[in-house]
Amino acid sequence: MADFQYIARDNSGQRVTGSIAAGTRREALAAIAGQALFPVEVRGAAATTAANRTRRIRAQVLAVMYGQLADLLRSGVPLLRSLDVLRRQTTHAGMAQVLEDVHHHVEEGASLAEAMRRFPRVFGEMATSMVHAGGEGGFLEEALSRVAEFTEAQDDLKKRVLGAMAYPAFLAVAGTVIVVVLLVFFVPKFDPLFEGLRKKNELPAMTDVVLGTSRFVQGSWFWVVGLLVVGFVALSRWVRTEAGRVWRDRMKLRLPVAGGIFLNLAIARFCRVLGTLLHNGVPILRSLEISSDATGNRILAKAIREAGEHVSAGQRLAGRLGECGHFPPAVVEMIAVAEESNTLESVLLTVADSLERRTWRRLDLLVRLLEPLMLLILAGIVLVLVIALLLPVLKMSKTLSK
């Protein structure tokens, strides 16, 4: 006998959760049904703990798995055999373990979506919802193919953004290290040379500031580093709270130039997920709930969920999205026309493609401008240090020449 955790609904539609002891999952389903409950999800308690401990799997590995599973099913290979083939051929140990568990639960009578939901850290809500809709509607192969395409596209966009920001980040770190090394090891060597000018109050103000900064960094670097570490740890912990995450997401949207890029990327993710889910038969209210989380921004997610509440009351989606003030007017207008012509899913995917292309061009331009700007800033700081150290030397040379 094993303990099974279950989520069910009673005759009035109320959500009921609990655990039940049974020999197999099928026996657990029968026992739950015998209590006049309609099971929604049933899973073993021990297996649930193991599933929650499963590490995340790279998006590229998941995309390949989705595509291969779709190809096998499209070729007429049964689902259980397809899962077993993928389990045996994968070289990723974590993926093999997950596929083995999914195969086991599908063999016991669970649907593919139910088996995938046991691994929330591996299979996202969007993937499981699309697979569920595909299984119910008889287009599982198409749903898996679209999940593979979406996963690959999102991973490619993420890599492009990270790749574009890699060089500016390197310049920032290198510049900081160079300036600190100059202040700690190079500038202090000039301090004794300028002692005479300091006593005569003839030391230039710029030189005095640079030498003072050097002495502060050299004598208090431990405290400075300690305060920075403590501040970083405290800020990172606070940002993990709900209030901190909301503040972070709000600040990301308010950044002068990067805010528009963050906003467009979030809207593009929302449009792509919503369009993909609607195209695969997922109801619009459920699609809005899933796609709101896909934005990665709590401010936008809240606005989308509020729009979903009004959609359930019979209002248009475009009108509520326009009132929140975050969606560009052109996007709102396209969604409004799509709702009237009943082509919302295709228009949303078109909007996502357009926003991603436009955002990538803006990001590429920003990075191209950021690289010389950071080089200029670094050169300017070094120039200030050099001038501050040369001014007293020139002053002393003039005094000696007299």
Q: In the CATH hierarchy, what is the architecture of the largest domain at level 2?
A: Up-down Bundle
Computed Rg: 30 Å
> What is the H level of CATH, i.e. the homologous superfamily of the largest domain?
Type II secretion system (T2SS), domain F
Share in β-strands: 5-15%
Q: What is CATH's topology name of the largest domain? A: Receptor-associated Protein
- Average of per-residue pLDDT values: 82
What is the 3D shape? elongated
Strand order of the largest sheet: 2-1-3
Q: Tell me about the biggest sheet?
A: 3 strands, antiparallel
Topology:
Elements: E1 2-9, E2 15-22, H1 25-34, E3 38-44, H2 45-53, H3 59-74, H4 79-89, H5 93-107, H6 112-116, H7 125-137, H8 140-186, H9 195-199, H10 205-239, H11 242-254, H12 258-279, H13 284-294, H14 298-312, H15 317-323, H16 329-341, H17 344-401
Antiparallel strand pairs: 1-2, 1-3
